[in-house]
């Protein structure tokens, strides 16, 4: 373990290198430019390669090609650029290729702006492209967590032969923090990879099926994988939940700000805690389902997007058993602890 | 007994599904022969496009990667960067390479990626049923230009070999036709040269092959041979547009 003071984007890039990443292709877009800038020199130091692609579309397809060799591959972008990668992410999923996609989110829709936001929740978790595939989606709330989750993402991508997304936001990307960097590891090219000429058997990476029955079988296998994720891979943090009558549901940068709010509210005698999804997909439905309805009187969803996007999953988790309220800022406005606290006080008032 | 003529090992045993008279079969065949003669079947990786070219994944008998529409050169870039010991060929049609994939095509060429791009130009979208391609000739009828391509509304057919030969990086850029034994022999030599360039790390090679589409041209296969000579190759002249390797030698 090595401790360093690093900007989020650079820390994500270094974590990928340490996870064994050997290829990166990307296209400049704010606020994630430090990732390609860092990897443009860093990957060549470790025997990998970097291509500044002519477009986001091209970048994700270069990753598709590199992943076919079995070498760990990654791309990064921000919201509007991730939209352009939708095609490629779908092809990666159907071709059963591992890859890591970093989304350092900014505000939208459209060109939106370069400021941080959490407006890509639904896009990341429900349908990041055509055809019904899904990805495991990690949502780091600190630079350290961005490092740890990026590092782990490669393992999940190779385990499942499926792309993995790290959904950060502009705050995590450009914030500087002290981080512990994980050890270097190598990921060996798996048997399916077009990794060399020594094999007698020919290999193919094909993102299609000639028969409907074959494709349906692939769809069924994918559905089984989604169920396995729900059983085994859900990650979340419970924060001061024991006696909480108000439970904040929040992730990423918003969740971090909410911790400050919870400490302050506790000082004022409010029984409040937080359930923070770390995997946005698979979502911690069961954690919401098992909240004690005799204690929890309100769930407050806090996100940097308007309207709330996570509400669709929280509702599925609580099944109408607990009232839900939402609070958010949007358009790149970073939510402040004061305004969240005011909302908490308003919610508390409403409980009487 | 001496074998004079046999199916290349680099083609699979199954019969092909191209339309009767289609020159994709000839293109597959001479690529297969070139790969066999250079003894690179184990090194070979085909990056296969969408459209009629997609069918070739059923026939090429070497490692294959299926690419999204137009993205073959980007996929080949990523793969070749990570697998420098492989010989990487993109196999793409005109709708794929010159329309939806023109950015990927030009930038891979401009970076001088050490890959070989085989471009089947038959002036029409085949698989989707005969729509106008970027290479459809002026006046040529298609299902989206039913009165013939009109330059004032659809622009002019794009000459890819000429366009790519304007870039600094490419090592070899040439156009051949598949409509006569002589032209087919020339095309095969060009393909072998393009593969040899890659093996010798000379960089990017682009081989355009003028092809036909009896089905969507609504022409019998025999007449398409004359059409390629008398019409297609008048707008898309055959020849070598760039050969850096010749200068070096």
TrEMBL record, chain A:
Residues 14-231 form the Pyruvate flavodoxin/ferredoxin oxidoreductase pyrimidine binding domain. The keyword Ubl conjugation does not apply. GO terms for molecular function: oxidoreductase activity. It holds the Pfam family PFOR_II. Keywords: Oxidoreductase. PANTHER family: SUBUNIT OF PYRUVATE:FLAVODOXIN OXIDOREDUCTASE (PTHR43088:SF1), SUBUNIT OF PYRUVATE:FLAVODOXIN OXIDOREDUCTASE-RELATED (PTHR43088). This is 3-methyl-2-oxobutanoate dehydrogenase subunit VorB.
From TrEMBL, chain B:
GO terms for biological process: cellular respiration. GO terms for molecular function: oxidoreductase activity, acting on the aldehyde or oxo group of donors, iron-sulfur protein as acceptor; thiamine pyrophosphate binding. InterPro entries: 2-oxoacid:Fd_oxidoreductase (IPR051457), THDP-binding (IPR029061), TPP_enzyme_TPP-bd (IPR011766). Gene3D superfamilies: 3.40.50.970. Residues 60-208 form the Thiamine pyrophosphate enzyme TPP-binding domain. Keywords: Oxidoreductase. The keyword Protein biosynthesis does not apply. It comes from the Bacteria. SUPFAM superfamilies: Thiamin diphosphate-binding fold (THDP-binding) (SSF52518). It holds the Pfam family TPP_enzyme_C. The keyword Oxidoreductase applies. PANTHER family: 2-OXOGLUTARATE OXIDOREDUCTASE SUBUNIT KORB-RELATED, SUBUNIT OF PYRUVATE:FLAVODOXIN OXIDOREDUCTASE. This is 2-oxoglutarate oxidoreductase.
């Amino acid at each position: 373990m090595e401790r360093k003071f690093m900007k989020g984007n650079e820390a994500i890039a270094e974590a990928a290198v340490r996870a064994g990443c050997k290829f990166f292709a990307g296209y400049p877009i704010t606020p994630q430019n430090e990732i390609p800038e860092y990897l443009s020199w860093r990957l060549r130091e470790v025997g990998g390669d970097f291509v500044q692609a002519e477009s986001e579309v091209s970048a994700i397809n270069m990753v598709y090609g590199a992943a076919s060799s079995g070498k760990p591959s990654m791309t990064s972008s921000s919201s509007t650029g991730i939209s352009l990668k939708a095609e490629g992410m779908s092809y990666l999923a159907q071709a059963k290729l591992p890859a890591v996609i970093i989304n350092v989110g900014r505000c939208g829709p459209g060109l939106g702006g370069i400021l941080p936001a959490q407006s890509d929740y639904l896009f990341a978790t429900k349908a990041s492209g055509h055809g019904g595939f899904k990805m495991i989606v990690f949502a780091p709330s600190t630079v350290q967590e961005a490092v740890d989750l990026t590092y782990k993402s490669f393992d999940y991508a190779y385990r499942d032969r499926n792309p993995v997304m790290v959904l950060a936001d502009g705050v995590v990307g450009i914030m500087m923090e002290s981080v512990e960097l994980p050890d270097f590891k190598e990921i060996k090219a798996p048997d399916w990879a077009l990794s060399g000429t020594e094999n007698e058997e020919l290999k193919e990476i094909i993102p299609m099926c000639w028969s409907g029955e074959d494709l349906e079988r692939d769809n069924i296998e994918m559905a089984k994988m989604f169920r396995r994720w729900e059983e085994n891979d859900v990650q979340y943090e419970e924060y001061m939940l024991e006696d909480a009558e108000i439970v904040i549901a929040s992730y990423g940068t918003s969740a971090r700000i909410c911790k400050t709010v919870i400490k302050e509210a506790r000082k004022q005698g409010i029984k409040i805690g937080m359930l923070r999804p770390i995997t946005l997909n698979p979502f911690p439905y069961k954690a919401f389902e098992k909240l004690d309805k005799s204690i929890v009187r309100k769930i407050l969803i806090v996100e940097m997007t308007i309207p709330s996007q996570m509400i669709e999953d929280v509702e599925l988790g609580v099944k109408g058993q607990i009232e839900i309220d939402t609070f958010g800022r949007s358009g790149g406005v970073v939510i402040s602890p004061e305004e969240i606290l005011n909302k908490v006080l308003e919610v508390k008032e409403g409980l009487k | 007994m001496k074998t004079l003529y046999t199916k290349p090992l680099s083609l699979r045993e199954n019969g092909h599904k191209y339309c009767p008279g289609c020159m994709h079969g000839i293109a597959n065949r001479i690529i297969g022969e070139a790969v066999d003669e250079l003894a690179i079947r184990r090194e070979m990786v085909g990056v296969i496009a969408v459209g009629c070219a997609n069918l070739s994944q059923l026939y090429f008998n070497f490692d294959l990667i299926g690419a999204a529409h137009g993205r073959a050169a980007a996929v080949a870039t990523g793969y070749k960067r990570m697998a420098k010991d492989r010989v990487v060929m993109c196999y793409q049609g005109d709708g794929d390479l010159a329309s939806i994939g023109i950015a990927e095509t030009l930038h891979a060429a401009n970076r001088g990626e050490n890959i070989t791009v085989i471009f089947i130009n038959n002036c029409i979208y085949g698989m989707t049923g005969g729509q106008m391609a970027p290479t459809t000739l002026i006046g040529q009828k298609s299902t989206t230009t039913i009165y013939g391509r009109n330059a004032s509304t659809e622009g002019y057919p794009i000459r890819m070999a000429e366009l790519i030969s304007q870039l600094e990086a490419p090592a070899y850029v040439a156009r051949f036709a598949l409509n006569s034994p002589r032209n087919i022999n020339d095309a095969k030599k060009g393909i072998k040269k393009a593969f040899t360039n890659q093996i010798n790390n000379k960089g990017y090679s682009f081989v355009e092959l003028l092809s036909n589409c009896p089905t969507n041209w609504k022409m019998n296969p025999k007449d398409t041979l004359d059409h390629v000579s008398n019409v297609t190759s008048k707008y898309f002249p055959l020849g070598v547009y760039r050969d850096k390797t010749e200068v070096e030698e």
